[in-house]
Amino acid sequence: MASAGGAMQLKVLFVGDVDVGKTSIFELYRTHEVAKSPKHTMDPVIKSFNIVTMTPHTTVELHLYDTGGQERYKTLTKQFFRDADIALLVFSITDGDSFRHIEQDWRQEVLNHNEKDVMMILIGNKDDLHEERINPKSTSRQYAEIHHMKFVEMSANRRDDYDKVDSVIREATTEIVRQRRNTMSGPVQQEDERIVLDEPVHDGLVQQQEQKRSRCRYC
Fold it and tell me: Which SUPFAM superfamilies does the record associate with it (predicted)?
């Protein structure tokens, strides 16, 4: 995603099968709270956050895209996937098909609609239901390693697991910032590479950003 006003913009996708908990993770990350009754709509849900790094002149603006239930009817368009920078591929550890569909469908959709590399994060949700586990953690971790993905298991029903999804998104964001900075100016010194991200900016700023972008919903 292109930069605007000096801020680097990153497009972050939440994708996966129906009922694996994508929207619950999306809301946990957005609000720091467990979503009691996530709302399902037929339109992609877009939220924006500013993340400011400690390194001067590096402001990262994250645009989070949730499918909004469109995957239920296979109506997601190429505009949803296009220009992605980070993709969270979500499956349920209690649903074997949802894991298989990551490879058969969702990972391929992300790859097919992007010419550049996309940082992918594999998320096994619902690990609070360990007695109902079908997908072994070792298998998921091995799959992530083979495809150079970050991997985390979590439960969107645990408030403390906000830290897990926040941490992995921050890691991915930091790597992209470093890669792009190196591309533009060559390798930087090790002491200059330490990037510490502030807390996301919520509510008022989000609403202002969404209003400004209302004319270009899928950009």
Answer: P-loop containing nucleoside triphosphate hydrolases
Asked whether residue 89 is assigned to any structural domain, the reply reads yes
Domain range for 196 is 8-212
Burial of 180 by CB count in 10 Å (0-12 exposed, 13-18 middle, 19+ buried)?
middle
How does strand 59-66 pair with strand 86-92? unpaired
How far is Cα 209 from Cα 115, in angstroms, rounded to an integer?
Answer: 27
The domain that holds 89 is classified in CATH as 3.40.50.300
Task: Tell me the residue type at 59.
Answer: T
- Which residues have a Cβ under 8 Å from the Cβ of 196 and sit 6 or more positions away? 53, 54
pTM of the model: 0.79
Sheet holding 86-92, edge to edge: 45-52, 59-66, 8-16, 86-92, 119-125, 150-153
pLDDT tens string for the chain (219 positions)? Answer: 666 556 789 999 999 998 999 999 999 998 899 988 766 655 567 888 776 554 545 678 999 998 766 565 465 678 889 999 999 999 999 999 999 999 999 999 999 999 889 999 999 999 999 999 999 999 999 999 999 999 999 999 999 999 999 999 988 988 898 888 887 765 544 444 444 455 554 443 444 444 444 444 444
Domain-located, residue 1: no
Number of domains composing the chain: 1
In this structure, is residue 2 part of a structural domain?
no
Q: Does 3 fall in a domain? A: no
